[in-house]
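Hi there, hope your week has been kind to you so far. Would you mind checking whether the tokens look sensible for this chain? I owe you a coffee for this, so here goes:
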Amino acid sequence: MYDLIGIAISVIIVVSVVLALSALVISRISLNRNVWLAGVFADILDFFYLPIKAVFHRFADARTLDKWMVSLKNVAHRSDFAKTKHRLLLTPHCLRSLDCPAPSTRFGIECRSCGRCVFSKMKEDAERFGYTLYIIAGSSYVRHIVQKESADGAFLVACNYELNKVMRALKHKDIVTYGVPLLMDGCYNTEVDYENLIAVLESFGAPHSGNHRSQSEKS
């Protein structure tokens, strides 16, 4: 009996390692081209995320794992995101000016369009493409936002760690995510490739519904 249990455990361990390694290889390949079964492999990496990340912490840069996972999830989510009707644009406060005059609320920073940072333009572009913009100081704000909004899609701008974290959280909220990483990590004075951001927004087009309302119209 105990021999059978030992064999079963060994088989489970071997299968788990093979699945995790296969998913890692596929996620790395996804950086350069589309891959099959991206959603399945993304789910595998989500399931084994903590032990895999512990290995990366010991032998490599853990940010690499998040980068690969975000890339894989983008491949998996792309077609579904294009079908979403009410989209959020969730962006990090670290992109704003150090002397930003905008007030902070439980839903994030309320941009005043002062022209001191990229958010003045991003606010206009979010409206143009049919997104509701939120500038948040951390992933904890997302919970309040998704309770307020009846969104089915969330376009994320952040470092890869935060992108992966929010993607994993919103997966359980039936909100399809797509992420664009920052050019560099940090708590302030970070940057995003704005031309690439606009190109990706353009590639998705406007949401399918015509009932999008901006934050100003809702308040």
The longest strand covers residues 87-92.
